[in-house]
C-alpha cells in the first residue's frame, strides 16, 4: 500500500469544516446557558472611583454583575514561559487599578446575549484618570535592558562588533520600525464554563489545553485534577489564544456564583485589548563589511514595548544570531513599559519583525557594494551556526535561493532602482532569506487498534488549522499499514495524553514524534503476539523480517505469509490493543536546528498614487520532512500572506492622549483580503534530517512569515529607489 | 429603558419553519446560532466587516450579523447546513476541500456561501475579479489562493458559461 507521508492528501476534518458541522468552543450546546459580557475600562491609567451596577442589575433578564467590589479571590499567574502561564500577570477584578485601556473591569451575566450586552452598557463607571504612558519613542528613557527572556537569549556578544564596525570599510547603519499588530483570528475567543460540584469543565478556544488547565486551576485556587479543558475546533489563533486571559476565569467564577453554565465570547473590539498583541519595535542595525562583501560586524539592538506590570520581549534579534557567518556579532534589547496591555507571541514572534530589519539591511548593503543580493548572502553563508559555532542538523538555504530565483526569473531583473517599468508603473523585484528555529517539546500519545481493525490515536494537542489532525492520522496509518480513513486522531481534551501548546511551529515535530512512537509501539505489540503464537503464520518470524501494509502484518517479500490485525486480536480475544509513548526532545546540543527559505517578490508601484500591488510571490523552503504537501503549502502560503499584511497593511493605532486604540475593528485594522493577494508559488526542498527527531520534521508554521516582509520592502526599493524602514509601507510613505 | 419584550416570529431556514419568541434586538446571525442552533454560520466581527456570517436570503448573499431577524419573515434563508445533500457535498464544498481553501475552517461557511452566491450572481471568469467579489470575506488563515481555485473549478463545471 502506498505511504501517505509527504503526499498532498486532503484534510481529515475538511468535511466537518465545509459543512458547518465542526463545533467551535462557543458553539457547544449546553443546557440552561447564561451569557456573559465583559465590561472594559475606557481609560488607560488610573483607578475606578465608583462603579455603579444598580441600574444594570435591574435590567430584564440580568442574572448578576460582578466587579472588583464583589469578585472572589483570583490568584495572579506569571505571564508567558511558565507552566500554566497567563497572558498577563494580572488576575481580573481584584482591585480598582487601571493599567491599560480595554482592561476587564466587570462582567454582566444575563439569560440572553442581547440582555447581557445591554446590561453591560448600563454599568456606570467613574474614574480617577492619570496621564497614561503611551508612546514608546517618548518614553525611551524608561527602557530597561533584557539579558534573557524566558529561555531565549537576547543579549549576546561574539568578538568585538563595535570596534570592527568602527573600522569597517563599508558600513550600513539604519533604524527600522514596526508597529503594534493584532492577531485577529477569525474566531473571537470563546469560553463556556460548566461546574459539577467541585469540578469545572471549560470549552475554551485555546492553543494549549494543558496550560489552560494548569493556569486556570491555580488562578481559581483549586486542584488541576478538578479542571477539564476541551477544545475540538479553534478558529485560528496565531499566538493570542496561547496564554490564559481574563475571559476564561471570569466565565468560571460567574458559572460558579450563579450556578449555571456561562459562556463568554469576546467582541472583535475587545480582542484589541484583552488578548495581547505584537509589540511595536524600533530596531537599529549596523553592518560592517569588506569591499568584497564579507561581513565583519553585525550589531542588532533596539526597543520594544511591554506593559507596566509584565515583562514581555519581542525577541527580534534571534535571526541576526543565526543567519550569517559574521565573526563579530552583538545583540541587545530593551523594553519600555507603557500603559498598554502585555504583548504576547504572534506568529514568528521576534523573527518576523527582526528578519524584516536584518534582511532590509542586507539589501542596503548589497546596493552599497553593487552586489547582487543573492550573491551577498552566499558570500556570508553560515556553514555553522554563527553564534553557537555548531553544525546544522540540516540546511538547504543555498538550494532555496537557487530554486526560488530560477522559478521567479531573477535573472531578468535589471539592478538599477526604477529601471524596470510597465507602462506608467514602476516594477520592482526583491528577495530575502527566511529562517525559523526548530522547537521540540515533550509530548505523549496513545495508539489503539480495535478488533474491527479501526485505529484511534490520541494526544491532547490542538488543531488550529495547521493540519495536525491530518498528519497525525497519516503518521499512524503509514506505521501500521492501514489507510488514513481507518485512523481517527482524537485530541483537544485534557483527559487525553499530555501534549504541548500549539506554538513555535513545534507540533508536527513534538506530537508527531509521540504519535509515531505510539503507533510503532502498538505495532510491535501485535507483532510480538503473532511471533509467539504457533497459530500465526508469523510464528517465530523475527521482527526485522516483518512488514505492514493493507491492514496486515506479513513477511517481507512474501505478503501471502501473514495475517490481519483483526485476526491477531480475535485469536487473543482482545477488544483492542494499545500502547503509549512519551516523546522527549533529545538535547542534541551539538546541532543547531532551523527551517530555512527564500522569498522573491515582484511589486508594481503607481508612482503618482504610491499604491503598491504585489504581482507575484515565489518561495522555496526547506523544513525537513514535509508530512503533507497540501497542508504544509497552506501553512507557508498563509504565513506569507500574513507577512504581506505586515509589510503593507497592518497597524494598530493608539491615541497618544488617551491610550485608546482607534482602529479596533476589521474595517480599520486592515487585514489582507483576497484582492490583495497575487499568485503565490511555494516550493519545497526535500530534506532528510536524521538529527532533529525520528520523523525528520523541522516545522513549517512560521518560517513563511519571516522573509516575505523584507522581500517586499526590497522590491519597493528596487521599483522606486525609496527605502522604507517603517512598517507598514502605505502609499503616503512613497509619495 | 429599552423594550426587550419578546416578539413572535416565523423564520424559514433551509426549508424549515421555525417559530421563535425573540427579543427584537436579535440579529439574524444570533437567531440562527443561539436560538435555532444552526452554528454553521459564524460570527467573526458582528459588524459587517468580515463575511463569516454570510447566508443567502432569497438566493442573495448577505451579512447576517448586520441585520435583525425580525426583518426576515417570509423569506427563504439558506445556510451552510443546507448545501450538502446527505453524504453528497455541494460541488463548492468538495472543491474547497480539494484545493485546501481553508485551514482553521472558521471563515469557511461564510466563504462557501459567498462563493455559491457569487456563482448565482454570475461569476466573473477572471481570477482578479473573483478575488474582488470575494474580498468581503476575510480569511486570517489566508487560504485565499485555494478559495479562488475552488471557485474557478466549480465555475468551469457549470453548464452554460
Ligand atoms: S460577523 Fe458578520 S460580517 Fe463579520
Ligand atoms: S480558514 Fe481560518 S480564517 Fe479562513
Could you explain the architecture of this structure?
The complex is a heterodimer of chains A (735) and B (161). Chain A is an alpha+beta fold and 735 residues long. Chain A folds into 3 domains: 26-131 and 183-272, Aldehyde oxidase/xanthine dehydrogenase, molybdopterin binding domain (Aldehyde Oxidoreductase, domain 4, 2-Layer Sandwich), CATH 3.30.365.10; 392-439 and 589-734, Aldehyde Oxidoreductase, domain 4 (2-Layer Sandwich), CATH 3.30.365.10; 441-583, 2-Layer Sandwich (Aldehyde Oxidoreductase, domain 4). Chain A starts with 13 loop residues before the first helix and ends with a helix. Chain B contains 5 helices and 5 strands. Chain B has helices spanning 28-36, 91-98, 108-122, 127-133, 144-157; strands at residues 7-13, 16-22, 54-57, 60-63, 77-78. In chain B, the strands form 2 sheets. Chain B has a 3-stranded antiparallel sheet, with helices on one face. A two-stranded antiparallel sheet of chain B has the order 1-2. In chain B, helix 2 (91-98) crosses helix 5. The radius of gyration of chain B is 16 Å and the shape is globular. The mean pLDDT of chain B is 95. Classes of the chains: A alpha+beta (735), B alpha+beta (161). Bound molecules: FE2/S2 (inorganic) cluster (FES) (2 copies). The site of one FE2/S2 (inorganic) cluster has 12 residues of chain B, from loops.
Provide a compact summary of the structure:
The complex is a heterodimer of chains A (735) and B (161). Chain A has three domains: 26-131 and 183-272, Aldehyde oxidase/xanthine dehydrogenase, molybdopterin binding domain (Aldehyde Oxidoreductase, domain 4, 2-Layer Sandwich); 392-439 and 589-734, Aldehyde oxidase/xanthine dehydrogenase, molybdopterin binding domain (Aldehyde Oxidoreductase, domain 4, 2-Layer Sandwich); 441-583, Aldehyde oxidase/xanthine dehydrogenase, molybdopterin binding domain (Aldehyde Oxidoreductase, domain 4), CATH 3.30.365.
Amino acid at each position: 500500500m502506498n505511504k501517505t507521508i509527504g503526499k498532498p492528501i486532503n484534510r481529515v476534518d475538511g468535511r466537518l469544516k465545509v459543512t458547518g458541522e465542526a463545533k467551535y468552543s462557543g458553539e457547544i450546546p449546553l443546557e440552561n446557558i447564561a451569557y456573559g459580557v465583559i465590561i472594559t475600562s475606557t481609560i488607560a491609567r488610573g483607578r475606578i472611583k465608583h462603579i455603579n451596577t444598580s441600574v444594570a442589575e435591574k435590567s430584564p433578564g440580568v442574572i448578576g454583575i460582578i466587579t472588583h467590589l464583589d469578585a472572589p479571590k483570583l490568584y495572579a499567574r506569571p505571564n508567558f514561559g511558565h507552566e500554566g502561564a497567563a497572558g498577563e500577570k494580572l488576575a481580573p477584578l481584584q482591585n480598582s487599578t487601571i493599567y491599560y485601556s480595554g482592561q476587564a473591569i466587570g462582567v454582566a451575566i444575563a439569560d440572553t446575549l442581547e440582555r447581557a450586552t445591554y446590561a453591560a452598557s448600563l454599568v456606570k463607571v467613574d474614574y480617577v484618570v492619570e496621564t497614561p504612558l503611551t508612546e514608546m519613542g517618548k518614553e525611551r528613557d524608561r527602557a530597561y535592558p533584557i539579558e534573557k527572556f524566558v529561555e531565549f537569549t537576547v543579549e549576546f556578544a561574539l568578538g568585538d562588533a563595535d570596534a570592527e564596525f568602527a573600522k569597517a570599510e563599508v558600513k550600513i547603519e539604519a533604524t527600522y520600525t514596526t508597529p503594534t499588530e493584532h492577531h485577529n483570528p477569525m474566531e473571537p475567543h470563546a469560553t463556556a464554563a460548566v461546574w459539577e460540584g467541585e469540578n469545572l469543565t471549560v470549552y475554551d478556544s485555546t492553543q494549549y489545553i494543558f496550560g489552560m488547565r494548569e493556569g486556570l486551576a491555580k488562578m481559581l485556587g483549586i486542584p488541576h485534577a478538578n479542571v477539564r479543558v476541551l477544545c475540538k475546533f479553534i478558529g485560528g489563533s496565531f499566538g493570542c489564544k496561547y496564554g490564559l486571559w481574563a475571559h476564561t476565569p471570569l466565565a468560571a467564577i460567574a458559572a460558579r456564583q450563579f450556578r449555571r453554565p456561562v459562556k463568554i465570547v469576546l467582541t472583535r473590539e475587545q480582542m484589541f485589548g484583552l488578548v495581547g498583541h505584537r509589540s511595536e519595535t524600533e530596531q537599529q542595525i549596523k553592518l560592517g563589511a569588506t569591499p568584497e562583501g564579507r561581513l565583519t560586524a553585525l550589531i542588532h539592538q533596539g526597543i520594544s514595548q511591554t506593559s507596566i506590570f509584565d515583562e514581555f520581549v519581542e525577541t527580534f534579534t534571534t535571526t541576526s544570531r543565526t543567519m550569517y557567518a559574521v565573526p563579530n556579532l552583538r545583540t541587545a534589547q530593551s523594553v519600555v513599559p507603557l500603559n498598554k496591555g502585555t504583548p504576547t507571541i504572534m506568529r514568528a514572534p521576534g523573527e518576523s519583525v527582526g528578519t524584516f530589519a536584518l534582511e532590509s539591511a542586507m539589501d542596503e548593503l548589497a546596493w552599497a557594494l553593487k552586489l547582487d543580493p543573492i550573491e551577498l548572502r552566499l558570500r556570508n553563508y553560515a556553514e555553522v551556526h554563527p553564534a553557537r559555532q555548531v553544525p546544522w542538523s540540516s540546511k538547504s538555504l543555498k538550494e532555496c535561493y537557487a530554486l526560488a530565483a530560477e522559478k521567479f526569473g531573477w535573472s531578468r531583473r535589471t539592478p538599477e532602482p526604477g529601471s524596470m517599468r510597465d507602462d506608467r508603473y514602476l516594477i520592482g523585484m526583491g528577495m530575502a532569506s527566511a529562517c525559523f528555529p526548530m522547537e521540540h517539546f515533550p509530548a505523549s500519545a496513545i495508539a489503539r487498534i480495535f478488533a474491527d481493525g479501526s485505529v484511534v490515536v490520541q494526544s491532547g494537542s490542538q488543531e488550529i488549522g495547521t493540519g495536525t489532525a491530518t498528519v497525525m492520522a497519516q503518521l499512524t496509518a503509514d506505521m501500521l499499514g492501514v489507510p488514513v480513513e481507518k485512523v481517527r486522531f482524537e485530541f483537544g481534551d485534557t483527559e487525553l495524553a499530555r501534549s504541548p501548546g500549539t506554538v513555535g511551529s513545534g507540533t508536527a515535530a513534538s506530537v508527531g514524534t509521540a504519535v509515531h512512537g505510539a503507533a510503532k509501539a502498538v505495532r510491535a505489540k501485535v507483532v510480538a503476539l503473532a511471533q509467539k503464537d504457533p497459530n500465526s503464520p508469523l510464528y517465530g518470524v523475527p521482527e526485522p523480517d516483518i512488514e505492514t501494509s493493507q491492514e496486515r502484518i506479513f513477511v517481507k517479500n512474501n505478503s501471502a505469509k501473514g495475517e490481519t490485525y483483526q485476526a491477531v486480536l480475535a485469536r487473543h480475544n482482545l477488544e483492542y490493543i494499545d500502547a503509549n509513548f512519551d516523546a522527549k526532545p533529545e538535547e542534541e546540543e551539538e546541532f543547531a536546528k532551523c527551517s530555512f527559505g527564500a522569498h522573491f517578490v515582484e511589486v508594481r508601484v503607481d508612482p503618482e498614487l504610491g499604491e503598491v500591488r504585489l504581482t507575484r510571490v515565489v518561495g522555496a523552503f526547506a523544513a525537513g520532512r514535509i508530512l503533507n504537501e497540501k497542508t504544509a503549502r497552506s501553512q507557508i502560503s498563509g504565513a506569507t500572506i500574513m507577512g504581506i499584511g505586515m509589510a503593507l497593511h497592518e497597524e494598530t493605532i493608539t491615541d497618544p492622549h488617551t491610550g485608546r486604540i482607534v482602529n479596533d475593528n476589521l474595517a480599520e485594522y486592515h487585514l489582507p483580503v483576497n484582492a490583495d493577494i497575487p499568485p503565490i508559488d511555494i516550493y519545497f526542498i526535500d530534506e532528510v534530517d536524521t538529527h532533529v527527531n525520528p520523523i525528520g520534521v523541522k516545522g513549517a508554521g512560521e518560517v513563511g512569515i519571516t522573509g516575505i516582509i523584507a522581500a517586499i520592502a526590497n522590491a519597493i526599493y528596487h521599483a522606486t529607489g525609496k527605502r522604507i524602514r517603517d512598517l507598514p509601507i502605505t502609499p503616503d510613505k512613497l509619495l | 429603558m429599552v423594550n426587550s419584550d419578546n416578539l413572535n416570529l416565523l423564520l424559514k431556514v433551509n426549508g424549515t419553519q421555525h417559530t421563535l419568541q425573540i427579543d427584537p434586538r436579535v440579529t439574524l446571525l444570533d437567531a440562527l446560532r443561539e436560538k435555532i442552533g444552526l452554528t454553521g454560520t459564524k460570527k467573526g466581527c458582528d459588524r459587517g466587516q468580515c463575511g463569516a456570517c454570510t447566508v443567502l436570503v432569497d438566493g442573495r448573499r448577505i451579512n447576517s450579523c448586520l441585520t435583525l431577524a425580525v426583518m426576515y419573515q417570509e423569506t427563504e434563508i439558506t445556510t451552510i447546513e443546507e448545501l450538502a445533500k446527505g453524504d453528497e457535498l455541494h460541488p463548492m464544498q468538495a472543491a474547497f476541500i480539494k484545493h485546501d481553501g481553508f485551514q482553521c475552517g472558521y471563515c469557511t461557511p461564510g466563504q462557501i456561501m459567498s462563493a455559491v452566491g457569487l456563482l448565482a450572481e454570475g461569476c466573473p471568469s477572471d481570477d482578479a475579479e473573483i478575488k474582488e467579489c470575494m474580498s468581503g470575506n476575510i480569511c486570517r488563515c489566508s487560504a485565499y489562493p485555494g478559495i479562488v481555485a475552488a471557485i474557478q473549478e466549480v465555475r468551469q463545471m457549470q453548464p452554460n458559461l
